[in-house]
Design brief:
Keywords: Endoplasmic reticulum, Protein transport, Signal, Translocation, Transport. Pfam families: SIL1. One of its GO terms (molecular function) is adenyl-nucleotide exchange factor activity. Interacts with KAR2. InterPro entries: ARM-like, Sil1_fungi. The protein is mainly alpha-helical and 416 residues long. 52% of the residues lie in helices and 3% in strands. It is built from 17 helices and 5 strands. A hairpin with a 6-residue loop joins strand 4 and strand 5. The radius of gyration is 29 Å and the shape is globular.
Amino acid sequence: MAPSRSKPVHLQMMLVIVFSLLVCIFAAPAFAQESASSESTKPDLICHTSKASECYPRIFQPTDEFQTVHDDQEIPSGLHVRLNIWTGQKEAKINVSGEGDPSLEGLPVDRAVVMVDPEQQHQDTPRIPKGAPAYEPVGKVKGPEHESVAFHEGLKMLKKGVSKYGPAFGDALEGLEELSHDLYYGLKIAEDSDAVKALFCLMSGPQLPAAAGAIPRDQQAAAILAGALQNNPTALKEVTKAWPKLVDSKCRNTNEALRISLYSSVVPSQNNDGTSAQQAAARVKSKVAVINGLLKDDSFRTEFLKESGMASLLKVLMPQQEEWAGAQRKVGQLVLDNFLDQDMGAVLGQWPKTPKLADKQCSTEESQTAEGCWDYHVARIVKATKASKGEWSRELNDRLAAVRKQQDKDEKHREL
């Protein structure tokens, strides 16, 4: 009988298996190192064209101001991210704890919408059937199961008007301000033209002194309007629909047409002490928020420019006290978003129309609020604050310079 060879064969198979395991074990670190090396060589910039100026960082670089986030950018955790309801653009900035607290300034808090499904963004646009009704981006606003009794009582008190603004009236305004951020209650306020007029009149009326720790009435009214208009296109449509009827009506507390008193209400009052300046700046900031909301409407924007509303806003940039920094930033963002930054929904070419004026001319009292002097006042703020790239004053300064450069080219072309 021949000797069995099963043992040598079995031994050979065992050696092959052991050798294979050793190869896998030593190859794994090399593969991991290769993957890490591949990741480390991933470019820091994303470029979709050959122009270097159109490249942007792979990892989003946040600043203190909201900036547009590109679809293919990576967003670090912990940022304040929002979806601009007017442009559909995702924006982000450094998150500041407690920023925009309405208890401090009477202003509405930004409502962020951050979840975006990239797969849905790249789907083909559906074909719209011929004769289909116009698309309404905001559907019917669903009301609460039980409406707030305090809300309706507050509206009655607001429309009735009171000769003395006591604590009860202040409490009513505070309740309306809290509910105005809600889509349903914000729309209910906007649909009531008498309530809207009362709020505009209260907002643009005399800046009466407030009790210690209390928010001034004009600031409360502005906060209610701003809350109703913020991220609520349906409410904006209702307010701007009523505006042509309200614009020439007079308020009892000013005896002026709203078209005059509203725009002049953002002009800073003269205050010498820091406390008064802080309160005056907070009042103006809340009113600028209302103007910013209304400017999203084409007809209001046209009228605002015609009635020299920009001159009133320019005066907000003139105080040099640090208490005015927040209000000035609000004005700068308004100008960028509505007139100079197309990515934020601005309609280019509407403003500015006149050429830049010389610094010497803009330093005089007669010309300091001229349209051509925006450059002068913004440049002063850039210099005083040592603003870097990404800050509102630097961005506004650069965009104004680009407009002026184009204006010079157009003028030379006309001369030819």
